[in-house]
Amino acid sequence: MNENVKDFLSEVTTLLKRHFKEFNIEVLIETQKSLKTNIHLAQNLFIAVRYNSRNERMDFALIYNDKRIFGYDNLKEWHCHPYENPSDHIPCDKPSIEKIIIDIKRIYEVVKNHAYSER
């Protein structure tokens, strides 16, 4: 694995430990230049993380019941997929990975609380 890929995964893991009590990282594909992981947070709720060191492409999507409900990525330019309408592309400045994790946690809390209140 390329140093950039290792550093990226290490930073993501460190931030997850800081902001989430429990998570499980499932590495789907790991190559010299890219990484594809799912970070499981709860039943039917995970973060799909994709990284390519060749072009610095990043994609963070919060997935609930097999649908993206929030995310950030830099396909063409940095943009956010807001929780209110995840199919929208809202242009933004490049966020830090920590900002992305914090924003995901905020949405995670809303979804988790909503899911428990439906039971």
Head-to-tail CA distance between termini? 43 Å
Task: Describe the largest sheet.
Answer: 7 strands, antiparallel
Q: How large is the count of helical segments?
A: 2
Question: Helix/strand/pairing class, anyone?
Answer: alpha+beta
Spans where pLDDT lies below 50 across 5 or more residues: none
Q: What is the string of helix and strand elements?
A: HEEEEEEEH
What is the average per-residue confidence, as pLDDT, rounded to a whole number?
93
**Number of E strands:** 7
> How many domain units?
1
Radius of gyration: 14 Å
SSE arrangement:
Blueprint: H1 3-19, E1 24-30, E2 34-42, E3 45-52, E4 57-64, E5 67-73, E6 79-81, E7 90-91, H2 97-117
Helix pairs in contact: 1-2
Describe the protein.
- With 119 residues, the chain is an alpha+beta fold.
- The chain has one domain.
- It has 2 helices and 7 strands; from the N terminus they run H-E-E-E-E-E-E-E-H.
- It has helices spanning 3-19, 97-117, and strands spanning 24-30, 34-42, 45-52, 57-64, 67-73, 79-81, 90-91.
- Strands 1-2-3-4-5-6-7 form a 7-stranded antiparallel sheet, covered by helices on one side.
- A hairpin with a 3-residue loop joins strand 1 and strand 2 (34-42).
- Helix 1 (3-19) packs across helix 2 (97-117).
Quickly list its features.
119 residues, alpha+beta, 7-stranded antiparallel sheet, 37% strand, globular
